[in-house]
Amino acid sequence: MAFPPQFLEELRTRLALSDVVGKRMRLIRAGREYKAPCPFHHEKTPSFYVNDQKGFFHCFGCGAHGDIIGFVMRHDNLAFPEAVEALAGEAGLPVPRATEEDKQRYERRKTLHDLVEQAARWFEQQLYAPVGRAGLEYFQRRGLDPEIMARFRLGFAPGDSGALRQHLLKLNFAEEDMVTAGLLKRPDDGRTPFSFFRNRVIFPVTDRRGRVVAFGGRILEGDGPKYVNTSDTPLFQKGTLLYGLSRARQAAADGKPVIVAEGYMDVIALVRAGFEGAVAPLGTALTETQVQELWKLIPDAEKVPFLCFDGDNAGRRAAWRAVERILPHLAPGHSARVAFLPEGEDPDSLIRLQGARAMQALLDDAIPLSEAVWRMETEGKPTDTPESKAAVKAALEARVGQIADRDVQIFYRTEMRRRVDEAFAPPPRQRPGRAPWQPGQWVGGRPGQPPRRHVPGTPGLRTGPQPGHKRRNPAHLPHARERVLLAVMINHPDLFDELGESLGMLPFADPALDDLRRAVIETLSGNAKNDSGLDAASLCRHLSLAGHDTIVGSLLSESTYVHAGFARPDASALEAKRGWWPTWRHLHHRQVMADLREAEAALARDNSEANFARVVALQQEVIRSGMGMTDDEDLDDA
User: Fold this and answer.
1) H or E stretch covering 519
2) Angle of helix 80-91 relative to helix 68-76, nearest 10 degrees?
3) CATH 3.90.580.10 for the 5-91 domain, yes or no
4) Cα-Cα-Cα-Cα dihedral of 21, 24, 27, 33, to 10°?
5) Which homologous superfamily is 99-236 in?
6) How far is the first Cα of the chain from the last one, in angstroms, to the nearest whole number?
7) What is the pLDDT of residues 177-232, one digit of tens each?
8) Interval 619-628: pLDDT, tens
9) How far is CA 614 from CA 40, 172, 328, 534, 620, in A?
């Protein structure tokens, strides 16, 4: 069975060899490679190595060697077609069948690859020839030595519009292929095609495998745009690749940060300083496809790419555009941080003037996307009237609503609402005769000690057990209520659209129950996206297949229902909702109380205006969350 060569090439590019092997055996990182005992012969000392950059595995014991398809064939005992189809399933690629047209297209791509590679070599040669002296001096003024110029294969395109064409014709390449590859441009009047790049220093652009597929050029003198890039070709689509991508893949695998800069020289400067995960878009704003490519680079879900922008207004606008592109695609483990350079600096100038430490400090201070979203909708916006405050809140809600992943959207909405409450909280009322609070003034206690348990405007607020109060089994109560909420949701999944957000914003104290809570949310959120509702029995089957059968069986039992009849499967939706909200408010009240204690501790450590405002806002939230609860019930959760 024949497969189109370009499909096999895409398959090898789409999947990392270490990911495929790692699903079938345990790999240990060894520098830029991975190692393990060979699965093809018996041994105790690891001699089996996997190299993602080169795309092959090799055993120094038995000599087994091959690419990703060869490994699956040997390990899974599959024939070539079955191995290809198995890998296509892992990559999410449909399996095409080769046609004569496919074969011709592949051969054409091979020709174009050879053509572009020869052009890159010619540009490199011109840089060191007399005609390229201006280009060489430009790179030298930018602090580049011969080693770094060779590493990035920098070159020069002379002003002679026919020189490249003549060189490639001598190598037997067709003129039409030169036009197709973006090296020549054909005039509208039908005259001889001329060089697209003229009198410019040249930056070769490589694909994921490190093959040159396009070029960027910076003008040195004369009229024309400062930078031009190869137009889209059969080898290159500027919205899908990133400058430096092949190098960044290996750097990210080695645990180095992935940094998105704005230009070619920024990437080169970052790599010279040790930040080998640097990449840049190719003449466009960061695209959605490039964002997905960034996330593929980073194997560790706890690490995220850094978006690095100039600190001026244009840089901030570029940052907000990038955040807008990323926001809809956020998912658990898929995010980014935003770093702003000092006014008038770019990575190249910052590193040349202050060194790599200054760049690392900038990354350390990068803000999370949630902070970027907040700044997008609040910086420079009026907030002096109720209407303007409502406008900011509405804008934030609209931004958060763009996030497709239900769980991430819930947490973002909770975070934005907390920030709105803190920012727009009314100032605390002062007791008669007391001077207004000033920044730096200690609230409710002596300096060096925690504040007292209330501030003006929140009389009588309790944040701990009161003298003479008898607790009623406090450790058991939260877990029992958590079980009740989960029982309601599992027995009445049709209520998820109404109650799901409140369940998502309330982490559970019991780790096992919290894992189940996340599984319920994930299952019902994913099902909601497919517009096909699950009944209770189907939901239980999903949870059982996910490994939660034991805890679900324990949860949906008489011990849960004995004091919460509204959670039973035969209770009506109205009964379930009526019982849900008081139970939820108890747990929410406890969570707010815990946040308050944390905020008070932070205020004790740092008597700042921001910490004071957070304490005030949380104390007011405690009062709101405790409304409608009896005194004994309040104390159970205090």
Assistant:
1) helix 511-529
2) 110
3) yes
4) 0
5) DNA primase, catalytic core, N-terminal domain (3.90.980.10)
6) 69
7) 999 999 999 988 878 999 999 999 999 999 887 889 999 999 998 788 899 999 99
8) 777 776 665 4
9) 60, 72, 29, 40, 10
